[in-house]
Specification:
Length: 71
């Protein structure tokens, strides 16, 4: 595992039209973290980082997030 920013992680899920940016809010869909329904910005990060394009689903930025994981 390696540390990285959410905006560069495949486990970060954002709204369909949202920009990939530091202040964009989304849902962490890593299977270890998903059960906690963590809403986090693009400049957040953790050790479960996996480089890739963020997933997209409606409700990912809601408080609390209402989207289901798309991966």
């Amino acid at each position: 595992m390696s540390w990285g920013l959410c905006r560069d992680c495949k486990w970060w899920q954002i709204e369909p039209g949202a920009p990939i940016a530091d202040q964009t809010l989304g849902l962490c869909i890593d299977e270890e973290i998903l059960k906690f329904r963590v809403r986090i910005s693009g400049n957040g990060g953790c050790i479960n980082f996996m480089r890739g394009e963020p997933a997209r689903a409606e409700g990912s930025a809601s408080a609390p997030p209402t989207a289901e994981a798309t991966r």
